[in-house]
Amino acid sequence: MSKSFTGSYTVAVTPFNDDASAIDIPRLHAFLDWQLEEGVPGIIMLGTTGEFVAVTPEERRLLVEETVKRIDGRIPVLVGTMNASTAIAVQQSVEAEALGADGFMTLPPYYYTPTDDEIYRYYEAIANATSVPIMLYNNPVTSNVDMSAELVARLAKDFENVSYIKESSQDIARVRDVIELAGDDMTVYAGERVVDSFLLGAEGYVNPYGNYIPRASAGIWDLLTAGRIDEARQIDRLIHRFDAIIAEGHPTYGHQCYSKRLAQREGFPMGPVRAPLTTFDQLGAEGEERLARIGAIIDELNEYTKQIGL
């Protein structure tokens, strides 16, 4: 393993053309250039926000290849390689590594509600087939699987490249438990409650907010590591305010739709989400009303980041 990861990473939306029939490469390139310009220290493609379940194998290869080429080693590129099938998850991971990905972010096998031993064997197969770092992704809200701290520590101790976790269980104590049980074998990335997670020992943050507020999203971690906790908390409070508005309409999957529309608000159109997700246009006046409220908070956030020198 050659790379180590730290900081606040954007889990990116996948750019489609206007009717979502194809991946839009010029939009991808413009978006990635913007992420670099705004100081984002790493990017994750084909996560939950990236609609990984809605792309074809050919589109997956194209997206990974074009992202790796455009980033050109300037920041780490991680790829979501999760699948309910172990064989497909392994194949996608091997392919992503061959295309130049610096690591993977991988949910446990979903839908079947696997046992701990089944989860272990799933990650064992991926770890034995690849050499780059694997970021476990614990998100029981969407996967219906909650990996215990004991299982995470077991995986970290048994496989050298299982070395990161995005912890999104909504249980802040889990961050502490993973760190205590896994020690130096596992680096925790917060999936939520970033300030509290940092204070408990998390070393990074994975979030969708970098799709439309990349400077603030990356900067919140810089503030934390500089000891500017109160300023980081204020950014987090503002994010929480518009996050709550997004959740009003769709508490689980709203980020895909709104992240794309908010990126467009910043000058980076990314196309609509793919069915069965609800597009922003389908939200009608309801979506526009929420967008106006979110936009006002983002404007307040941008003004605050200028005041504190981000």
TrEMBL record:
GO terms for molecular function: 4-hydroxy-tetrahydrodipicolinate synthase activity. It holds the Pfam family DHDPS. It comes from the Bacteria. Its EC number is 4.3.3.7. Coiled coil: none annotated. Keywords: Lyase, Schiff base. PROSITE patterns: DHDPS_1. One of its GO terms (cellular component) is cytosol. InterPro entries: DapA-like (IPR002220), Schiff_base-form_aldolases_CS (IPR020624). Belongs to the DapA family. This is 4-hydroxy-tetrahydrodipicolinate synthase. The gene is dapA_3.
